[in-house]
Design brief:
- By secondary structure, the protein is mostly beta strands.
- The chain is built from 2 helices and 17 strands.
- It has one domain (53-265): 3 Solenoid (Pectate Lyase C-like), CATH 2.160.20.60.
- The chain has helices spanning 23-26, 222-233, and strands at 3-8, 16-17, 35-38, 41-44, 49-54, 59-62, 68-69, 76-83, 96-101, 117-120, 140-146, 160-165, 181-184, 200-203, 215-217, 247-252, 260-265.
- The longest helix has 12 residues, at 222-233.
- 47% of the residues are buried.
Length: 266
């Protein structure tokens, strides 16, 4: 299996849909002739990229790909690296393998992700790790790491998996969360946990304004916290010291008969 480097020649005039451009799909293919959607036309990759073979099996996309959407769409294995920024839906439907974006990504990143490992070195837009439009379930598995900040509605309807944000997050963090774990290293916007049903949201940074529909809990959870804290500590940074720190918890969202928890790390 041969890897490929696709180096952007120049930014396209309109948005490009990169679904189907994955390590497995390009293995053994005539890469330059593989077509992608550019507006309402199907255009060969060679129109946008200079293609060269690699000595490893990775697929590397080089350049400013902010007009390229669905990078890693439903990828199920292999390694895909974007040496730059990417557009909307980055890693949406990811099933396996590793996707790494060295810059920022647009809206709806990691939506309905079910497995694999997605690392974004920069910021993500709104509705990351959420549900695709018209769907009821958001992220369903895997691990999402955001080294920068996140927009609004991060983790909306998330059902399973772990999502870690080192920077800040916008309003409605973990809105309608069904299950899973979200950890935030920076500041949080308004209304965290709105409509939350289950799951855990860990605030390693400043404790946000807790909605009035959450109730403080004094129940001992030291064993659970040590397991969760050690798992999150593996990501380093502000999360590295979590096992040695105390916590406070608020349960809710009681307005939605929820049993989730907001965890403040002291």
């Amino acid at each position: 299996m041969t890897g490929w480097t696709l180096r952007l020649r120049q930014p396209p005039a309109l948005r490009v849909d990169l679904r189907g451009v994955t390590p497995a799909a390009l293995a053994g293919a005539d890469v330059e002739r593989v077509c992608v959607a550019h507006a309402n036309a199907m255009v060969p990759l060679a129109e946008f990229f200079a293609v060269s073979a690699r000595s490893d099996t990775a697929l590397v996309l080089e350049g400013d790909l902010r007009r390229f959407d669905r990078v890693g769409w439903q990828m199920d294995g292999g390694v895909l690296i974007v040496d730059g920024s990417a557009g909307d839906y980055a890693g949406a439907g990811l099933r396996g393998g590793e996707l790494r974006v060295c810059g920022n990504v647009g809206a709806l990143a990691a939506c309905e992700m079910t497995g694999g490992h997605l690392v974004i070195e920069g910021d993500v837009g709104n509705f990351a790790a959420a549900a695709l439009p018209g769907s009821m379930d958001g992220m369903r598995g895997g691990t999402l790491i955001v080294k920068g900040s996140a927009g609004e509605r991060f983790g909306d309807r998330m059902r399973r998996g772990t999502a870690v944000v080192f920077g800040d997050a916008g309003d409605f963090l973990a809105s309608r969360l069904v299950a899973g774990t979200i950890a935030l290293g920076g500041r949080c916007g308004a209304h965290p946990g709105y409509g939350m049903r289950r799951g855990s949201v860990v605030f390693a940074g400043p404790w946000p304004v807790v909605p009035p529909t959450f109730a403080a809990s004094r129940a001992p959870v030291s064993v659970f916290w040590q397991l969760l804290a050690r798992d999150l500590a593996q990501h380093g940074g502000v999360f590295a010291t979590l096992p040695a720190r105390r916590i406070e918890r608020a349960l809710g969202d009681l307005a939605a008969d929820g049993k989730g928890e907001l965890i403040a790390v002291l």
